Amino acid sequence: MSYLNNDGKYEKAYHYLFKKLVPSSGVAYNNLGEALRLVSKVYYRKNNDGDSYHDCIEDGIVPDFSENHYPFDKEYKSLGRELDTLLSSGKYDDALNLVLLHIMLSLSSTSNIYNPEMNRLVSIHSPAGKRALILLDLNSVFVNYCGKNEAWLPETLRKEGVKISKALSYGTKKELKCDTVTEFYKASTDEKNSVRVALSEDNAILSKKFSKIQSDHKKSVKEHEKKMREREKRYELIKKKQLRKKIKDLSTTKNFFHILKDMTPSKRVDFIKNLLKVDIDWRKNTLVKMLLITLVDYKERKITTKSQRENRVKVIDEIVKSLNEVGAHVSKTLSKYDDGEHMYSDVTYLDDTLETKLDELLIKILGSSEAVDKLYISCCRY
């Protein structure tokens, strides 16, 4: 029996349920419908293109069913793992059977079972219902829950009662106040253990169940679209915020280097200190920062001799000239940018020739390269 030959185990149910749960495009109306769509896709690729389940994963056609991705997450994790085992073993028809079984059981209830030959819900206790149980490979077991809410049971067991699976006489059931229920079990993929099937208490007719599935799907689509619109709004706000920051950063940077270009030796110490507080990326302008700090240091020095005064004037002139050169160099580059444009990360970097010149000036002023390194560590290391 194979769905490839149109005689699969649940052939009629397959075509009916696929039509009910899987639209002509996009994802299915619910999790199990999506599982059916994905397994059907793997089945088709295997039998029409020769691609294996793992080829489909590698090509991004389907997710790895064992990795807890939608739809094989939450309550369907175990289904994903079972399908992964079956498909990895080449049991493609069994995988399709398993998904169809889950769908039919999800539509069934404690009173009505899905009959795959009729594509209808039928009473479990009717001949058609008993036939459906056989077709779905379900074993029914009578279970007694005894002593519910009885004081003679320990409090921890009192709510559910004691579960007794063996057959009890009518007298014993009455004496122990037992509720007898029918539980259903299906074989697991390892064929060693059986798994209990939990049926819904929803006894609605099949058409209403499909209507609810589609209605829930429409709601989820609307919620998703709403979230996407909210996400787009947040993204637009972020873009506007980033644009404002770009405009501000560009304006601040342009203004800073314009000030350096036109700065004179007579500028007050407070003015220079404020320059060091300007919000620019100092990591790209460490030499500029070191020159400004050295300039502040020389302007604040207490002078006692004429030679010291002459040396201070000379050093300040040299530093200011270098800063003027830096300001002119960077301002020329920045003049190419309009407000709102993104500055490239290297815009305010200095060329090698200018960097070397500034470094040599600092060595000359501070007396050694070690002194320059010490200044770098104290003020510019990040």
Number of strands: 6
Lateral strand order in the biggest sheet: 4-3-5-6
Order of helices and strands: HHHHHEEHEHEHEEHHHHHH
Largest sheet: 4 strands, antiparallel
Query: pLDDT under 50 segments (min length 5)?
Result: none
Q: How widely separated are the two ends? A: 70 Å
Instruction: Choose one word for the global shape.
Output: elongated
- The number of helices is 14
Estimate the helix proportion, in percent.
55-70%
C-alpha Rg (nearest Å): 39 Å
**Category from helices, strands and their pairing:** alpha+beta
Residues in β-strands, percent: 5-15%
Number of domains: 3
What number is the mean pLDDT?
A: 87
Feature tags:
elongated; 9% strand; alpha+beta; 382 residues
Question: Could you characterize the architecture of this molecule?
Answer:
- The chain has 382 residues and is of the alpha+beta class.
- The protein has three domains: 1-118 and 128-136, no CATH class; 137-203, no CATH class; 247-379, no CATH class.
- 57% of the residues lie in helices and 9% in strands.
- It is built from 14 helices and six strands.
- Strands 4-3-5-6 form a four-stranded antiparallel sheet. Strands 1-2 form a two-stranded antiparallel ribbon.
- Helix 9 packs across helix 12 (306-334), helix 10 packs antiparallel against helix 11 (286-300) and helix 12 (306-334) packs antiparallel against helix 13 (352-366).
- The model has no long low-confidence stretch (mean pLDDT 87).
